[in-house]
Queue: 3 jobs
Job 1
Amino acid sequence: MQAPPRITIEVPLLKLGEGPADFEGLGSHVDALRRPRGLHMTLLHVGILEDLAADVAAWTKGFTGADVALERTAAWLRGLPVLEGFAACARRLVVLGGGSVSGLEVEVPQPVRDFQLSLVVALHGLLDGLAVDNIDDFILSSPALGYRSPRWIPHVAVGRPKSRYRRPIEIEPLVLEFGASRIRNEWALDGPRGG
């Protein structure tokens, strides 16, 4: 049986540098270079909706039921604003995910940072409406949300680090073009109940 999909708000990477050669050039620094198609930058990780709903129900000791949390979260996600496409720059590769992921550190324009912050504020509002107390503690401890740090590091995961060194690797500056924000695995918002 296939694992339930993870839900994120992301922007797709439409173009990196001057073309395929620039992307393939990252292979000298990265193992298992990912395919260019599907590369993206995550703005907000929500996780598996059923797991998040269960986390909310457990945190509120059943005051907010999992079904209610699931329904409201899906509606909340559908109601989020859309960030228009934008250009950004990357000048180095960084190691993330406890050392398992190599990513381009993205220098995003301030409006993108503001938008990402607005998503976090909106998440606080959703959780407050679901009767979650100590919201920051919940966000950092919810297995579904999976946050290890309150700080957002804009990045595009491109493969695995070649070495165990965790130091950033400076690269030739690359211009990145991103599309409009979207809900990854949006089809899953209908859930197993079909609506």
Job 2
Amino acid sequence: MSICKAFGELSVIELYELLRLRSEVFVVEQNCVFLDMDNKDQLCHHLLLYGDNALVAYARILPPGIYYAEASIGRVITSPAFRGTGSGKLLMELAISAATKLFPGHTIRIGAQLYALKFYERFGFQRDGEIYVEDGIDHVEMILT
């Protein structure tokens, strides 16, 4: 089951689950000290993918003008317990669909961790720019037209 909600529509439990998962992977697993809660969440839609009574995967959908001029998908994450199940692929398909419906006619730009470049290319994203370091991790911008 998946849900996509604006920030103000999230239940307290949904918000806790998504922030906990983001912290588990982006801060603890990737050993990256950064302020995950960046005051952009309130302006975004949040896609949560559930299975086996647990949050399996999550992505944040940003309107144009918040992070990039284009619409964007960020904080793409799969729970370590559900990796290798196809959940990440399903999440991206749902995120692209949601971004397209929420912001019709807009290009989608992402800041991808470099190791995931091939993953995003499978969905039609193309590299757009040079490698840059964000929070100690190599990234590259990618675009889907």
Job 3
Amino acid sequence: MSINTELQLFCYLKGTYLEPMIERSVYNKRLKKLFDYTEAIRKCISQKFTEFTDVFVVDSMPTPICKYSRAKRSNICSTYDIQPTFGRCASQKSKYFGYKFHAVCDKNAVFHSFDLAPAHIHDVNYLKDVKHNLKHGTLIGDRGYISAYYQVDLFTHLNISLSVPMRKNQHNYIPFAKAKGKIRKRIETNFSQLHGQFSWATNHAKSFLGLVTRLLSKITAFIMIQYLNFFVFKKPLNKIKVNLA
């Protein structure tokens, strides 16, 4: 429904039977306490899709927490160990302040796993975490994941084949397969839908726990729509913006 704040949500609930059931601040606190359970639900739904494939895609996108001009005086997430930093998005040719969202999805565009890191951390470092989430298959990424070390390490220990497009000045250059390029674009479509439908770049949280709770809620809602589309309504999997009823 593109409701991005608890205040807006409770405005919708006025006059319904849900209004007297819970107060807004209590709802917000309870949502944070249920973080682990929400993640368990997300993983359960994700596994129902990922068991059909062994082809996955890895990518990252900016997750700003405030406007760039306010970054130096911002106190958002300042008390947490993993603090926001300045970063640059190469595809958008822009700078931002916050975190970088790393994600792995399967070839059907269903999120498999994800993590947050400070904005300045290079994409290739996320491949360390991939070893804890995948066991076999093909992992497709962009040029930000070029690494001979991780390519050998993932294949040797977990039988994961890392496939990334080569730079044209690399030795023994081989063009990237169009089929793999088409699959890789699906995670970019996911990111675009998160921005458009779920207001990913809009942050109303003040603490890191509040931030990750909101992001997890959006991803879980995203996967829930995919699940309902595919298993219940028999609609195309990624018709995210179409009303379910």
